[in-house]
From TrEMBL:
Pfam families: Neur_chan_LBD, Neur_chan_memb. Residues 371-385, 412-422 have a biased composition (Polar residues). Its main location: membrane. Residues 211-457 form the Neurotransmitter-gated ion-channel transmembrane domain. Residues 6-204 form the Neurotransmitter-gated ion-channel ligand-binding domain. PANTHER family: NEUROTRANSMITTER GATED ION CHANNEL. GO terms for cellular component: plasma membrane. Gene3D superfamilies: Neurotransmitter-gated ion-channel ligand-binding domain (2.70.170.10), Neurotransmitter-gated ion-channel transmembrane domain (1.20.58.390). This is Uncharacterized protein. The lineage of its organism: Eukaryota, Metazoa, Spiralia, Gnathifera, Rotifera. The chain crosses the membrane at residues 207-228, 264-285, 440-460.
Amino acid sequence: MLLNEKNYLKKVRPSNTVIVDIRFVFNQIVSMVEKEQIIVSNCFVDQKWTDSRLVWNPLEYKNVTWIRLPATSVWYPDTFLYNTADNAGFLLPHDSQNVIVSHNGTVFWPLPLAQLRTRCRMTIKHFPFDEQSCDMIFGSWSHTSSLIHYRFWEKIPELPQYTPNNEWRLLAVSQSIRQIDYPNWVEPDTFFEINFTILIVRKPLQAIYNTVVPALMLTTLTLVSFFIPFGQEMQIGISIMLAYSVFSLRLSEDVPSQSDSVHLISLYLTICMLFSLSAMTWFAVVNKLREKKRLPYWMRWLALDYISVIVCAQNMHRKAVRVAHQSSKTSSTNPSSPSVSVPLQPLLSPNPTESANHIYHERSSHLCRPSATSVRQSQDTSPSSPVWVRRPLIANPSTELNGSESKKMKNSFRQSKNTKDSSASKNQESLYAICIINRLVFLLFFLFVVVFNIHTWFFYSRALKTKLLDNATLWTCFDESRLTVVSCNETI
């Protein structure tokens, strides 16, 4: 009798203005398609309205106050999800679904669990500590506010059976309703928009473990490169740069690209790449200095006297001082003139004629003629054996004539030897100074890595402002650990 085609037309509104109460129950975050900026969620959308054509007297029907009718056999509002990501935006009943009708004409339509795909504009500037606010906007597709008037069933949204997500944590939900005027609509009227907003924050453990930890290991490997030979340093540096490039490409496939901002992990990887590039440049400079083996005096003085104390390298300073003392001691113990001796040669022979000829030959060979006493003594002692006499080179008349040239040769020999000792000492000091400066650069790089990582992953995340502080929105906060609604002050 209620659904008689003569008395009831399911395609016609029950009255001029139908008041529809709507309730949104958020159930689960299924997934977040970040590349396409789409959120997939499960939720219940319940609607209630009054149809005056479905009224009966319970006394006439054995005191029956509630009945179930097929949802497709009664009129229902054309509620549509405005920001849907596909063509399934209408909330349509199926043949197996029922509506519950009261004797006073109230129709209750509990829509079964619906999987909604909605567009969600993502802000990834603070990834992986990003906080996303996603809206689900409902409203009538063809009825204006004068024909269908929406209002909330409950003032506060409910989360009775929420299922936590592995990647996202639900912070709060809110609901609002407003009237929107569409200038291109044929009627001069407004539409109701019911906005359900969920505030979610990313759980950063997975992103940190998959991206930040390997990048931190590569940065540590760059620091270790300070203690290996130069050729291997460059090979490790090139491998590290390639690894950073792979991480950047892998990250760009999962995170949506935005031109208005660069997310935190991409900025972190870029700084790590610049850090490795700076280290490789420094390795090349140090290798060039080692090949040159000579630093300016002021640089050696600064490194050996002051920087060595800062980097705890006093042993290198002591070694450099010891080398300098040894060099000065060697130069001070050098003789003023080198000793030049003439090999021993026989002075006399048994034959006087040969002896005279030999004496003449020795005179020409920078040896002096022996005295008569020495000749007589040699004849008395051993007439048949020659006598060997060594004479200094300066006794030669020809040497006396060229005395100035001899002094110049002696001075040049002494200066060349002192110059060699001084050059070796400076080269050794330069090598010690290079080692000290290299240790200072290592400490600076190490401090940069420690401070940069602590600030990024401990202080930066806590300094971010949450949207819960927005007083313009009335949030209902949720605690996933207790699965209950809590005060937003506790969440903040």
